[in-house]
Amino acid sequence: MTEWKGVLNKVSFGVDVGGTFTDFVVFNHETKKYSLGKRLSTPENPSKGILAGVQDLLELLNIPASAIEHVIHGTTMVANKIIERKGAKVGLISTEGFRDNLELGREQRYDMYDLFIRRAEPLVPRYLRRTIFERVDWEGNTLRPIKIDQLDSISELFTKEGVQAVAISLMHSYRNPEHEQKIRDHLKRLNPDLYVSISSEVSPEVREHQRTSTTVTNAYVQPVVDLYLNDLQQGFKELGSKGTIYIMLSGGGVTTVDVATSVPVRMVESGPAAGAIAGSYYGKLRNEENVVSFDMGGTTAKICLINNNVPSTTSEIEVAREHRFKKGSGLILKVPSIEMIEIGAGGGSIAHLDSMGLLKIGPESAGADPGPVSYGLGGTSPTVTDADLVLGFLNPEYFLGGEMQLDATKAGEIIKQTIGDPLNLDAVQAAQGVNEVVNENMASAARVYAAEQGVDIRKYAMVAFGGAGPVHAYKVAKLLGIPRVICPLGAGVMSSVGMLVAPKSFDFVQSYISRVDSLDWDYLDSMYSAMESHAKDILTSAGVPISDIILTRSADMRYVGQGFEISVPIPEGSFKGGKSDQFTSAFNTTYENLFKRYLTHVPVEAITWRLKASEPTPMPQLLFDIPTPETKNGRVKGTRPIYMSEKASFEDVPVYDRYALEPGFEFAGPALVEEKESTVYAGPDCKCTVDEQLNLIMEIVYK
Length: 703
Prior knowledge:
Layout: E1 11-17, E2 21-28, E3 33-40, H1 46-61, E4 68-75, H2 77-84, E5 90-95, H3 101-104, E6 129-132, E7 135-136, E8 142-144, H4 151-160, E9 165-169, H5 178-190, E10 195-198, H6 199-202, H7 208-239, E11 244-248, E12 254-256, H8 257-262, H9 270-285, E13 291-296, E14 301-307, E15 310-311, E16 313-314, E17 317-319, E18 331-333, E19 337-338, E20 341-343, E21 349-353, E22 359-365, H10 384-390, H11 408-423, H12 427-453, E23 461-465, H13 469-480, E24 484-487, H14 494-500, E25 505-515, H15 521-541, E26 550-559, E27 566-569, H16 580-595, E28 604-614, E29 623-624, E30 636-644, E31 649-657, E32 666-668, E33 671-674, E34 679-682, E35 686-690, E36 696-700
Parallel strand pairs: 1-4, 3-29, 4-11, 5-6, 5-9, 9-10, 13-23, 23-24, 31-33
Antiparallel strand pairs: 1-2, 2-3, 7-8, 11-12, 13-14, 14-15, 14-20, 16-19, 17-18, 21-22, 24-36, 25-28, 26-27, 26-28, 30-31, 32-35, 33-34, 35-36
């Protein structure tokens, strides 16, 4: 590193590891400015790419590693380990009679007409699924005392088979965790190096299949995550940093490495969650309450609906689907998460012809290794990026700011050979087909998602980011009827910005099933008291002053006899004396808002109780350390021919230097706007403006 001189300014890093690229943002606490970086991911060892990228930025900015105050990290690694089945060897201990819980699932077919339906294989093979004599009822009463001596032979089997981690999931342990705790303690005495996950801590919720699946998945990735995060911490120490590393969670909050290591299953969607947080942040900056977050990276596109500046959330997600876009075909996890849809439509998504000769995009991706054909790194399959290059939307000399050269000739040849020739199309026509199909795939998914949420997506603005997002945003917005697209400066690395504007937070959950008019209010008080005490311990350990901690309560409730619940806000404070009327009223109000009616003759019951602990959401002013413009005179770098589908021909359009566009500058499409991490395409019916935060606002004029 170059010799550092001057006053030590503290900096913070946001690092997002994706399937193709790793994105970086650095915030200088003294100048209040952000600097950006992007490099290819290193899938074989993600920490290698992170440390190399951090070191490059430190050298570029002439800042020592000792100036790093903290690093906030999000990654798709946990999801990838599950999908690729590269986690630890896991054993499962369950209640006698429930050995095949993972296999039975929810006894539902995700496709009733598929005679050859395939389910996601359990992460634990049957010979490593063992049972123990014990039983607790739904109220937490012990029906059968545990026979702890049975564990000796189970432990012996696990040791013999090389089991690294054990999941324990007993019937109704969410009400009484004593038996699970005894099993864990006994196993740890027999084998201190064993990783043990118990369902009463990982997912203390009703519904044993989902709880067991979540606990098994936690055990499956825990040794891998522990090693990875330890290596990452050690790598930063070797760089000379004493800063704290924080981890982004699927729910959109940030927590410590220790907490993330204990429940790594909550990191499954940590990278995409940061993108939704960034979308919410930019919506607030623009006073747009309702926005569509559109994050198109190298491997997938993620879309999230943000209402009243709050991203949609869910308490249940799926990973490792046998059919990527068929709900129910994957592993079910009870994990607090930001709700979004994922489409196999990234820059690296592979274009191919199916068995019927139809053009399809993804879900397979070329990733970072070997990457698209145009990267020249050994890729042999045409991708969305290759098509964008052939159509002129990307500058082969300015990809990643010129750090990487793209080969347009090779991209055109492979597209013609693989797609064009079988369909009797030339390279440009085939590339245009790829472009249209991928855009329609994303728009179709967004339409269905909005319909499921009961909203009119035409009343939303779009926040477009990710390396490929701004290139495709105009056409996707046009297909959806969205009137306005916001493209932030540095859109290619916006997920990492989301990490620096995400609050430190954690979600707690506890199932306690009862009709509202029969609740044990003292028990409910003690339950929330325990959750709130734990919440304060976690957040204060992450550096949040106790006076800044915000506690938000909610309950999953339903009418007696229903099979699904809705989330209902409930008040703070003590419940002594009873709150049944207040709870019922809150439920009816929420129910009516969702379904336009409520029932007065059916009692209400509560299933699961939730607590979200958070610090206030940061709202920093974004001041970017803008690179020197490429253009010395004016804002236009030149012109470039791009394929205009409206005219079915190439047309020269102006290419603007993003770093030369000042607040208030206006121009009309068609045009391209280039920056290091991404390129914006504005269509012929766009009016574009640069706002005070240097966001590029595209207003689409519909006739």
